[in-house]
Specification:
The protein contains eleven helices and two strands. The chain is mainly alpha-helical. It has a domain of 149 residues. α3 runs parallel beside α5.
């Protein structure tokens, strides 16, 4: 039924291939569920509600794209317009987020009108092709930079704005290893290369976190031996050990998460997604 409805055989594909492609696409763009709420929460919006609405809007738009156009294109909130909304409109211009959402609604109505009348298509066609490619690459580099920052590959520097992180640390090595592994799998044309790369790195990080949790439990047990005059010293050492292990686990976990709150851009930063 799916094959007939979406004309898969006519388009030279199969149900299995589309499921694999859909899983790969989801794994590649799932970072939006973390980044979009993180950015918009800076404007004062509820983070939990933002996670829900981000997932629902992406799912609804993707389903409509599939049913109305039969195009295998996934849609989600733009990673440029949300930063402009938060840092330029709400924080920069001092507009409350509730009023700013009203501006977004008006903006959506205008874009709908431009699309229905065909003006939007003429505007897009008037943009030079090299500029379209440049916009796409710019957004990709922006997303990659956030991921590298979260993985510790790049860190803040007062002299050069950014510099490389500690490549000898576990989380950074895990991040770089994941990038290298995925690149090798893609180069060798392994089916589901991106999904396999993500799954293998997440499994490795999960194993490290579990081991850290075991160490925390062991340290907790070592603190429950106040039978001598050195009980205070034992408790102090145990607390330090727990804190160190927890910090290490949190750092490893951060290297696995696709993104965290990005560096706040200037209020005048242009929004490429608005193109």
């Amino acid at each position: 039924m799916l094959s007939r409805f979406f004309r898969l055989q006519e388009n030279g594909t199969t149900v299995g291939r589309e499921l694999q492609a859909g899983l790969t696409t989801f794994a590649a763009m799932a970072y939006v569920l973390a980044v979009n709420p993180t950015i918009l929460a800076n404007a004062g919006m509820d983070r939990a509600a933002l996670v829900t609405i981000t997932a629902l809007s992406a799912a609804t738009a993707t389903v409509l794209m599939a049913l109305l156009t039969n195009y295998p294109i996934a849609l989600a909130p733009g990673m440029g317009i949300n930063a402009f909304f938060t840092f330029s409109i709400c924080l920069g211009a001092g507009v409350p987020w509730s009023q700013a959402l009203g501006m977004v609604f008006v903006n959506g109505c205008i874009f709908l009108l431009l699309s229905v009348t065909g003006v939007r298509e003429k505007i897009v066609d008037s943009i030079p092709y090299p500029l379209k490619i440049a916009i796409t690459c710019g957004i990709g580099i922006f997303i990659a930079f956030i991921g590298l920052k979260n993985g510790g590959v790049v860190v803040a520097s007062p002299a050069t704005f950014v510099t490389h992180g500690d490549f000898a640390s576990g989380p950074v090595a895990l991040c770089l290893g994941g990038i290298l592994l995925t690149a090798v799998l893609v180069a060798r044309r392994v089916p589901g290369a991106i999904v396999l790369g993500i799954a293998m790195i997440v499994s490795a990080a999960g194993t490290a976190i579990v081991k850290s949790s075991i160490l925390i439990s062991t340290a907790d047990c070592s603190m429950k031996t106040p039978t001598s005059t050195s009980a205070g010293a034992v408790a102090t050492a145990g607390t330090a050990r727990i804190n160190g292990v927890r910090n290490n686990a949190a750092t490893i976990n951060a290297a696995v998460v696709s993104v965290v709150s990005p560096v706040r851009p200037p209020a005048s930063t242009p929004d490429a997604d608005s193109m």
